[in-house]
Structure formats: structure tokens, C-alpha cells
Design a protein that fits this description.
heterodimer; A: mainly alpha; MetI-like fold; about 0% strand; B: alpha/beta; 5-stranded antiparallel beta sheet; 13 strands; cell inner membrane (chain B); ATP-binding (chain B); nucleotide-binding (chain B); Peptide/nickel transport system ATP-binding protein/oligopeptide transport system ATP-binding protein (chain B); P-loop_NTPase (chain B)
Amino acid sequence: MASEIVTEQQVKMKPKKKESQVVQVFRKLIKNKLAVFGLMIITLQLLMAIFAPFIVAYEPDEQILEATELPIASEGHWLGTDNYGRDMWTRLVYGARISLVVGIISVVIGLAGGITLGLLAGYYKRLDGIIMRFVDLLFAFPGILLAMLIIAMLGTSIVNVVIAISIWSIPGCARIVRGSVLSVKKQEYILAMKSLGAKDSRIIIKHILPNCAAPIIVFATMRMATTILSTSALSFLGLGAQPPSPEWGAMISAGQDYMWTSPHMTIVPGIAIMLVVFAFNVVGDGLRDALDPNMEYPE
Amino acid sequence: MEQLLDVQNLKIQFRTGEGKLSPVRDISFQVHKGETLCIVGESGCGKSITSLSLMGLLPANGEIAEESFIKLDSDELTGKSQDELRKLRGNRMSMIFQEPMTALNPVFTVGYQLREPLYIHQKLSRKEANQKAVELLDKVGIPDPKKRVKQYPHELSGGMRQRVMIAMALACKPSLLIADEPTTALDVTIQAQILDLIEDLKQEMDMGIIFVTHDMGVVAEIADRVMVMYAGEVVEIGEVEEIFNHPKHPYTQGLLASVPNVEDDEHTLESIPGTLPNVNEKIEGCRFHPRCPLATEQCRKQAPPIFHVNENHTSKCWLQEEANINDKSTTTS
């Protein structure tokens, strides 16, 4: 009993700080300055997307024909206007909506597929070969080519971009999940759960999946960056959002004919894409460190 | 005493790259209600595999051979489907493991894990299960159980975690408890507490216990009967006093000679020469003969059958045949 009494006292001596793991991870995350910068940009984009109609003075496709190709810092149009006289700031804000929605939906679909395949492949040795060969097959295509192939089959539209990018997210996620499952399922607590009579489905969903959460969270964050970049790339190539949609990639595509006369038409959405992709990447990096219990942080 | 578990001719096979291996060859034993059977032997002699096979938890490439027969109470376990076995696990037979550090899931609270067997087998509601979890923690001697159910495994000491494991295993009042070296990873004072706890709970619940260990000190503490295994075979079974005072098999004698003795200054520690043979090694005759100081020509050629020393004591050694013959001649003359 002696040693247990000691531990009991030690517990009592500590000031009452029983914070959830989410709070602990967040605390670690905000010690990383780059990640904080990333979080700020993501929050900004989120606010832009949610409150779009309230923070801009125009409609995204409202044309003011007497004010075309206004440069940056013009009166009433602080980011200028494009060749049709549409306000760049307005289009940028509405574009944030598109890239965020496309990003979230395709990451969620991709995760759902990838997690399911990864859990099955990792847990059932019989399925491992088949599933992972299918995943290898998907990996064999360069990502953007795979997406283009899928769009070529389904036709060009933003919905098909979501489908294509979701499918492209599946193999990476499946591999990561499978790897974690392989290491988690060997743990004694899984055997202990089996010895208590838990069904496979219960073990996989309630006991293995939560132990794989950290790599999945990191993957999802990083994947948001790739997804936003790919959506823009596909739209730039004319395979995704079609004009007059204010999608950022489509805006760059429309602006490239006016590169010499109005460079801000390409530079503004270009910087927006760059910042957002950068933000998701650094937050993903920060999360990876914050979720790693072996990582020591200087106080 | 009423018989609880009957194991006959248990043979376990593993399919591997080198063909079929048998880490457990043809062993038979019984466990009665309210009795502790200790399985002792070196690492790799098949102790743990035997206990896993009883639970139906062999790895995917392992199987129980067809001629084997396992009966729990009146239910024959061999031939049951995985799903039928699953309903017995945690309910009528439970297991506790060696490493309390790794046998609890680090991402869930103690209470969450304690509720699992109650959800699975008794379909309790969350509230009932939570109350039962607190009662169980109290029963295994954890102070302040209401606070403890909300804690994570890393907030508990090794001994406490082992108590939680025991509480989980006993949640549904099983009639058979298999303990696979539950005290090996604990320090000695905690070890004694856990052994006492298991003993108390055994008497309270009238369970049969199979206690796997390689620590002869623990055996002396807790066993009613002892089963000594060597290289996948049972070499000697007997009551604990018999095994300690009159070991018949040279391997058991060797095991006992390799236990330090504090009281006797003259006592010299002896080790058994050689190492445990590989599972795939073919040994003619008795499997222990290459390491046996008393091996004879017969031992090298012919595997010994099981000889009875008395009603409850058997030894798988040719020496016993000789002893039995001598006994008979002295009694008849």
C-alpha cells in the first residue's frame, strides 16, 4: 500500500489542472510561432468564407464597366478590379468559400474511404494484400494526372473536381492508417479486449481507431493544403470551376491574358492560394509535433 | 472438489514457413473449482500458448489439433465457433496479462475500459455500468474509486493498473481466471499484495485459477497444484507440497535447485545445463534427455509415458517406472 499512498499524495499536491487532451495539444501547438501564423490565416479564410456577403460591397460577378482593370489601392476597390470591372476583393472573398468547401468535402470523403480501407487492411491479414495492391495501383498515377483522368471521364465541373480529389486522397490515407493499425493491434490492450469477448468491429472502431487519431489529424490538415492547391490547379487548366466562378485558380487563368497590363489580376489570387496552402502545411507540421508525446518542448 | 476445466491431449500447431510446428504437444490436465493450478517452466516452454489456446486467442496461424479436447464446466470448447467462444470470453473465462503498463489502452479512462465487459456481456446502461465500475474498483482495493474511474492509465501506478486489469477480468464473475505472469512486472511488495488479492477473490467467487509463472516463490505462495512444463510437454503434475518436497522429475528438481535459498548458507545455486530446444528440433526419446544429468540409454531412445507417483502426482520420466517397480517389490516382499 505504501507506494500507492505516496502517489495519491503526489496527485493531491499538484494544483488542480485536469485539462483535456485537446487543450494540451493546443497549448503545445501555439508554442510554435509558424503554426500560430498558419492558424491565423486559416481563421481569416474561415471568417471570409462564412461572412462573405457582409464584408464586401459588391456581388462577385457584378460588372462595373466604367471601372475595368483598376490597379491595387484604387478608391472603392482596394484590390483593384479585373477586365470586366469586377471587384477583386469581393471575388477573393467568395473564392475563399469555394476553396474551403471543396477542401473540406474532399478531405472528408477521402478520409472516410482511406480510413475504412486502412483499418480493414491493417486488421485483417487476408484483406491486406488485395486492398494494398489496389492502393498501390492508385499510387502508380501521378496525383494530378489521376484527377485529370477522372475529370475527363466525368466531365468538367467543380463537383467532379471534388470527386476526383477525394479519390486521390484515399491511397495516402489508407497507407497511413494501415501502418498505425499494424502497430496498435499488436499491443497487449487489444489482446486484453479480445480476452474480454469484444467483437472485431468493436475492437477496430472503439479501440484501434482512436489510437490512430494523431496521424489522421496531421494527414487531414496537410491534405487540405494539397486539395486547395489541386483544385486551383485543375480550375486553372479549365478542368474545374468555370468562369465566371470566382475560384482562385480560375481567376488566375482569366488574369493571365492581362499579365502585362494588370498583373494584380493574377498576383492577388496567386498570393491567396500560396498563403492558404502555406498555412495548412505549417499547422499540419505543428500538429505533428504537438501530437507526438515524445517531443520535448522547452518551457 | 468439482471439476471445472478438463483438458485432454491438447496439441497446438502453428503453420509457419518451416512447416507445421507444435509448441504444445499432447498435454492433459484438470482444474477444479476454487483451486489454483500453477503452470511453471522456462520461457518458451509453451505456458503462455497453452493459456491463450484455452481462451481461443491463438494467433491467426495457430490452431488446436483435432484430437484435442477441452471442456469448461459441461461445455465442450473444442469445436465451438469463434463467435460462441467470444461470448464465453470475459464472461465465463477471463485472462489477466503480464504487463499492466501495456494491457490498458492509453487513450481511454479506467472507467471507460472497465465498462467494456459490462456492455459486451451484460448489456448494462451507461449509468449502471459506471456504478458497477466504481464497485469493482473498490472490490480490488483501489482507494477513492469514484475519482479513479475518471483517470487515465498513465495516472496510475503499476500495481494499481494490475488491480484495474483484475477488476476488468472479473467484471462478469467468470468461473475460470487465467493469469499469465500477472506479477512478473511488479516489484516484490506489490507482488505480494496482488497475490493476496487474487487469492481473496478466488475464495469469494469460487473460481478456478490457472496461474502461469516462472517464479517458484510465487508458486509456493499461491498454488494448490503445480504443473511443470518442459518444451511443450507436461513433465510433472502434483500437489504443491509434493512438488516442493518430493519432486520426481529431474527437470523439476533442477528448477527447484536453481531457486536461491536465503535460510541455508550451504545452499549453492545450480543451473540446468544447456538451453530449451527449439520448437522445430527433433529429439528422439525423452525431450529432456540432452540436458538431464540422469539420462540413460532408454531415455535417449524411447519417450517416457506418464507414470503415477500417487493418485494426484504424475511424472513423465523413466526413473519413475523404476521407482514404482522397486516400490512394488518392497511392498510384496
